[in-house]
Amino acid sequence: MSQELSGQWTVPVLLALDSCRGRFTPMQHHLEITPARLSDNLKRMEENGLLKHLSPHERRHPALPEYVLTEKGLLYREAASTIQIAERGLGYGRLSSKAWNLSVLLALNFEHERFQEIRNALQRVTPRTLSMRLDELHNLGAIDKLITDQPRPSFLYQLHSQAKQPVRQLSVDLRSIV
């Protein structure tokens, strides 16, 4: 679920869809996004089964593009709302705008502390991407990077004390949705 919710515009689009009544132009203005970028994101979300592009006969106005959330999209919108609340609680900006950020934080919440443990928990993440996300999250102050010498020198990654409660709550809330 978290990979389909990642990307700079996925969470904002899911949250804006209803308030903009599914219409393209109001959504574009609300999100302050270029038409091409919004179009690309809507197509990707449609391919992932999150929304449906209404045909001219289904729309309120046949000439105006309009989208509605699918059943899966409604579930993901609920998750997007939960993510938005967690991001506010964390105070590091929109972490969901980059792939794997939230997944890394959730893996750390489940006490996967070593690089390989995190990678195994996330399965599809590449070592390079995981390394970049761990460094970025460390630089933001969301995670702590510790050195251990047992069984051999290596890094341990842990949620920073201020991030623990919002990430724990995100985990609980997402689990209740799924």
From TrEMBL:
InterPro entries: HTH_HxlR, WH-like_DNA-bd_sf, WH_DNA-bd_sf. The lineage of its organism: Bacteria, Bacillati, Bacillota, Bacilli, Bacillales. It comes from the Bacteria. Keywords: DNA-binding, Transcription, Transcription regulation. PANTHER family: TRANSCRIPTIONAL REGULATOR, MARR FAMILY, TRANSCRIPTIONAL REGULATORY PROTEIN. The keyword Ribosomal protein does not apply. Signal peptide: none annotated. This is Winged helix-turn-helix transcriptional regulator. Residues 5-74, 98-162 form the HTH hxlR-type domain. Pfam families: HxlR.
